From TrEMBL:
Broad class of the protein's primary localization: membrane
Membrane-spanning ranges: 654-676
Subcellular location as annotated: Membrane
Domain of life: Eukaryota
SUPFAM superfamilies linked: Cadherin-like (SSF49313)
Keyword Repeat: yes
Database matches in CDD domains: Cadherin_repeat
One of the GO BP terms on file: adherens junction organization
Residue ranges annotated for the Cadherin domain, each copy included: 12-113, 140-207, 208-315, 325-431, 432-532, 553-651
Cross-referenced SMART domains: CA
Protein name (record): Cadherin 16, KSP-cadherin
Keyword annotations from UniProtKB, A to Z: Calcium, Membrane, Repeat, Transmembrane, Transmembrane helix
One GO CC annotation: catenin complex
Length: 698
């Protein structure tokens, strides 16, 4: 038997079939044949170049055979094949034969790359290449990244282009050509076809943006570059199709002409005029970009002419005034307004004006307020005027721009003189202080001068002083001297602070006045002794002594903290008193009185002690305090009345004394009322009219 195998065939793809015949019944196992490859000659480059299907007898290449098959190394192989019936069992009959295999070359190879021009006119489809499998029957298909049906292949292996190509969308294609058997099994490895797309000048140059904005200075010289525009062409950059030429085709406003130019090759826009001074504030240019074929597009360039500070501000006149202003004019009054004009573009920094008072305002009586919308400056009063001190002001005002001058300089026209006369007005008195604080020791002798209110009149008129708010008439003030005195001795415990108002009136015009507050602080003097506060007659102490039981004694001192801050309790220097009783301070004003011994006989005791203040020397009060001592039950209540204190009245005697006292007082009141009701008033005589107070009609 003879067969041939093509170079490039994949492993496992049968290239021939060995056939054998068995005369036994085909429907029985007697005719069930099995094939086996016994030997390969020669055994180069491998002893296992081929394999055979044991059931079908199909011969194919092994993996080694597919990868190493080479007709130049070995162009013919002889294969010894054995066939057995009975499915190859041990009792089967067998037969053998020789298969001669010729190794042949193949036309299955990658075709040459194809270069196609984009936008081919057709007609379509257009054949562009062809492949051929030279062995058994085969079918072809194409794979790759391209639109469906853009490329197709016929049964004969002819590859077609079915639609125009666009290089700007995809400039090349890598197409894989697959060869398969009719049953869909791949015969050989795919081959590649590279399709390159040639450029045609089919794209117009375009600008990345439709409008550009740029600025050129007013004093820019000829040749100053202001902007570069660049258009892009999607054609092949390796061809002349992307060469772009630029032109300036429009200018708005059109006059004056030839202000700008654009470089034909680079797209650089520059100033062509000698100067931009005096031109419009803005220009709109139209620039076109065109390729060699004439395809073009355009953009607009908005050029803003930036004003430069080449004009100093100038006053319309050198002197202003004189202006008159009364000396009582209120702060914030506008004296006048002036303007320094600037020829630069209105609203810009070069047009704005900063004004400054160069001289005549050393005391900062005036200030300048500029209207940023008009550049007009107002001269405003910032301090109170005084005709007697200064009656005339000569102010020098300068005007400059906030940005530096690029041409020219500030001269005399950028300064002006303003003359102001202050008119005299009768002014009210002025007090040296808005508030006086005075201290006086309580109890001081009346009539002492405690303060002198000082004032002056700018017009040298006399000043009269008076008091307001001193309702109790504790103070007086000298009508012309302003001396404040006490009329009576003052008591700090009655009132520690007095506040009143001193009125100073112009002696020639009572409508003009000034006022000041006077606060008089009364200084404390230790003139009050401390006193015991509270009723202790109903309180008691238990005997025998109870732990922690005590009478809480309270005291008070009407003086201030300096003298009556801490009050001290002390027992009389008597051995018995100090043995029986104990004083324990609680705070500055309270102390505990308790038994100092475990037991004291029940009765009412007099406990002598002294309360002293903290002044130096201290003021003291001696106290004899009756204290009840009694036996107590478990709840701490007295079980029996204590013995009456010697010399103390009984309850019965106290009630009798009170009743007798009330009887005497009642009798006296009855007699007085009866006498008044029956007494006729006498008419005053002419000789004693001075004794009767005057009747005042209101």
């Amino acid at each position: 038997m003879r067969g041939s195998v093509q170079l490039g065939l994949l492993k496992g793809i049968p290239f021939m079939q060995v056939d054998a015949v068995d005369r036994d019944d085909r429907n029985t196992a007697h005719a069930e044949l099995r094939f086996r490859l016994m030997e390969q000659t020669p055994r180069i480059p491998s002893s296992q170049m081929f394999s055979i299907n044991s059931v079908t007898g199909e011969v194919s290449l092994t993996e080694e055979g597919a990868s190493t098959l080479d007709p130049e190394m070995c162009g013919r192989y002889k294969l010894s094949v054995m066939v057995n019936d009975m499915a190859g069992k041990s009792n089967a009959f067998f037969s053998s034969g020789i298969v001669t295999v010729e190794v042949t070359g193949n036309t299955w190879a990658s075709p040459d790359p194809v270069r196609l021009q984009e936008n081919l006119p057709g007609p379509y489809p257009i054949p562009i290449s062809q492949v051929k499998w030279s062995g058994s029957q085969a079918e072809y298909s194409l794979e790759g990244e391209f639109p469906e049906m853009l490329f197709t292949i016929s049964r004969e292996g002819v590859i077609y282009l079915n639609a125009p190509l666009d290089r700007e969308t995809q400039d090349q294609f890598q197409i894989s050509i697959v060869v398969e058997r009719p049953d869909g099994r791949e015969i050989a490895k795919p081959v590649e076809l590279r399709v390159m797309v040639g450029d045609a000048n089919d794209n117009r140059p375009t600008f990345p943006q439709a409008q550009y904005h740029t600025v050129v200075k007013e004093l820019a010289s000829r040749g100053t570059e202001i902007l570069t525009v660049q258009a892009a062409d999607n054609d092949d950059p390796k061809t002349d199709n992307v060469r772009i030429f630029y032109r300036l085709v429009g200018q708005i406003p059109e006059s004056p002409r030839a202000l700008f130019r654009v470089d034909r090759d680079s797209g650089v826009i520059s100033v062509q005029a000698d100067s931009m001074e005096g031109t419009a504030s803005q220009y709109t240019l139209t620039i076109t970009a065109e390729d060699a074929k004439g395809l073009n597009s355009s953009c607009t360039v908005v050029v803003t002419v930036q004003d430069e500070n080449n004009n100093p501000p100038v006053f319309s006149q050198h002197e202003y005034g004189p202006f008159h202003i009364p000396e009582d004019a209120s702060v914030g009054t506008t004296v006048t307004a002036v303007l320094a004009g600037d020829a630069d573009v209105r609203g810009g920094d070069s047009w704005k004006v900063d004004y400054r008072l160069e001289s005549g305002n050393e005391e900062e009586v005036f200030t300048l307020v500029t209207d940023k919308q008009t550049n007009e400056v107002s001269l405003v009063l910032s301090k109170v005027l005084d005709f007697e001190r200064e009656s005339e002001y000569i102010l020098v005002i300068s005007a400059q721009n906030p940005v530096a001058l690029v041409r020219g300089r500030y001269g005399p026209a950028s300064t002006a003189t303003v003359s102001i006369y202050v008119d005299d007005v009768n002014e009210g008195p002025i007090l040296s202080q808005s508030h006086y604080e005075v201290t006086v020791r309580e109890g001081e002798e009346p009539g002492r001068v405690i303060a002198t209110i000082r004032g002056y009149d700018p017009d040298s008129h006399p000043i009269r002083y008076s008091l307001q708010g001193d309702t109790k008439k504790y103070f007086s003030i000298g009508k012309y001297s302003g001396e404040l005195k006490t009329v009576q001795a003052l008591d700090r415990e009655e009132n520690s602070t007095y506040t009143m108002e001193v009125i100073a009136v112009d002696g020639r015009n009572s409508s003009l006045s000034a006022s000041t507050l006077v606060t008089v602080q009364i200084l404390d003097v230790n003139d009050n002794s401390p006193v015991l506060v509270g009723d202790y007659s109903w309180k008691y102490l238990c005997t025998p002594r109870w732990e922690d039981q005590a009478l809480v004694l309270a005291s008070r001192d009407s003086d201030g903290p300096q003298h009556g801050g801490r009050l001290n309790f002390s027992l009389r220097s008597d051995a018995t008193v100090r043995r029986n009783w104990k004083l324990t301070p609680i705070n500055d004003t309270h102390t505990n009185l308790s038994l100092n011994i475990p037991y004291l006989a029940p009765e009412v005791y007099t406990v002598p002690f002294t309360i002293s203040d903290s002044s130096s020397p201290p003021r003291s009060t001696f106290i004899n305090l009756p204290v009840t001592v009694c036996p107590c039950n478990i709840r701490g209540n007295c079980k029996m009345a204590a013995k009456q204190l010697e010399g103390m009245p009984t309850i019965q005697s106290a009630v009798g004394i009170l009743l007798g006292t009330f009887t005497v007082i009642g009798t006296i009141l009855i007699v007085v009322f009866v006498r008044i009701s029956y007494q006729n008033p006498k008419q005053p005589s002419k000789t004693h009219q001075e004794r009767v107070p005057l009747k005042i009609s209101v």
